From TrEMBL:
Its cofactor is pyridoxal 5'-phosphate. Catalyzes the decarboxylation of L-aspartate to produce beta-alanine. It comes from Halopelagius longus. Signal peptide: none annotated. GO terms for molecular function: aspartate 1-decarboxylase activity; pyridoxal phosphate binding. It is an enzyme of class 4 (lyase). Pfam families: Pyridoxal_deC. The modification N6-(pyridoxal phosphate)lysine is found at K206. This is Probable L-aspartate decarboxylase. Pathway: Cofactor biosynthesis; coenzyme A biosynthesis. Its EC number is 4.1.1.11.
């Protein structure tokens, strides 16, 4: 059989994953045969994980973070729900999320047997604080705010959501899986230093430029992580808070290496580049008469005709759509101006000619 080759990134505009940083690639290879799920045996990778959590804490504004490197944002979100459910111990637990929340919360609710209350967002796709307040009650264990939503890159009003959560006796979780490596360089109030946030998802394998799998889960209080721990009879260590057992030392080492190489200046430069690129691309689309949503973080969402979308796909572009149908272009590190110039040329060639 021919040796399989992965796709190239030259036409990938829809993904939230990217080319890993060279230091991350190297670390992933070197730590392939390690298991941070058994930290007393695999001590070096366990130290790298502590270091990765420290840096994630710095990025998110938390000086003594408690957490770990997950398999991704999905695991981190499931675990945040699980921790809140275990700590609150109400009869009939529910979680309140804005409509813009990632589908991993649907999985979390299903696996954990909690009710998911999805409330409408405002006209700009951000969580509507009064709708969240109306949906929360005594059985609410967790309220979720999204900091960098998957479809429109929106940042929810985190301080207000924290107030709503705490008034209801619930915890406040921020999902910054995608946005967390951009937000420190913006004026948004999203992190542990901006509001009484209890937990956060922040993924090195998206904008952190680590190798997959490397997500991040952080708690302000030790008790958040402790609520997840189970006893582990046959390992050298005696308890485990992760959802997975054996897990990827490659992801953990890659996360530590990428953050060592890039935090803060490398990430700042990438944020500035991506933000500039997204606003340029949005204006190019507007000049062509397409309706484009305001750009908040480097995702561009634009209404294009279905037929054009299909023709662009046939031309080899990897593109996706929002639930409401907009073309969505995520300006990840591998997305360059040259790529988008070529993409615009394909749009010009394939769009229906004006009447
Ligand atoms: C990508 C994403 C997730 C899920 O992360 P995975 O690493 O794909 O499991 C969760 N929340 C947000 C906001 C995301 O963008």
């Amino acid at each position: 059989m021919q040796r399989a080759a992965p796709q190239e990134f030259t036409r990938v505009l829809s993904s939230m994953c990217t080319e890993p940083h060279p230091a991350a690639r190297d670390a992933a290879e070197r730590f392939l045969a390690t298991n941070p799920g058994d930290p007393a045996t695999y001590r070096t990778v366990a130290r790298l994980e502590e270091r990765a959590v420290e840096t994630l804490g710095e990025i998110a504004g938390l000086s003594e973070p408690h957490g770990y490197v997950t398999s991704g944002g999905t695991e981190a979100n499931i675990q945040a729900v699980r921790s809140a459910r275990n700590r609150r111990r109400v009869e009939d637990p529910n979680v309140v999320v804005p409509e813009s929340a990632h589908f991993s919360f649907t999985k979390a609710a299903d696996v954990l047997g909690v009710e998911l209350r999805r409330v409408p967002t405002d006209e700009d796709h951000r969580a509507d604080v009064s709708a969240v307040r109306a949906a929360a009650d005594d059985d609410t264990v967790l309220v979720v705010g999204v900091a960098g939503s998957t479809e429109f890159g929106r940042v929810d009003p985190v301080p207000e959501l924290a107030d709503v959560a705490h008034e209801a006796g619930a915890f406040l979780h921020v999902d910054a899986a995608w946005g967390g490596f951009y937000l420190p360089f913006t004026d948004h109030e999203w992190g542990f230093a901006d509001a009484p946030v209890d937990s956060m998802t922040i993924d090195p394998h998206k904008c952190g430029q680590a190798a997959v799998p490397a997500g991040g889960l952080l708690f302000r209080e030790r008790a958040g992580l402790d609520a997840l721990a189970v006893d582990t009879p046959y390992l050298e260590s005696t308890s485990q808070a992760t959802l997975t057992g054996t897990r990827s030392g490659a992801g953990v080492a890659a996360a530590a290496a990428a953050m060592d190489a890039l935090w803060p200046d490398g990430y700042r430069r990438e944020y500035e580049r991506a933000a500039e690129l997204a606003s340029w691309f949005a204006s190019e689309l507007r000049e062509r008469g397409f309706a484009v949503a305001d750009v908040e973080l480097p995702i561009v969402a634009a209404s294009v005709p279905e037929s054009l979308f299909e023709r662009l796909r046939e031309a080899g572009w990897r593109i996706s759509r929002t639930e409401s149908g907009e073309l969505r272009v995520v300006c990840m590190p591998h997305v360059t101006r040259e790529m988008l110039v070529a993409f615009l040329a394909d749009i010009d060639e394939r769009r229906p000619s004006p009447p």
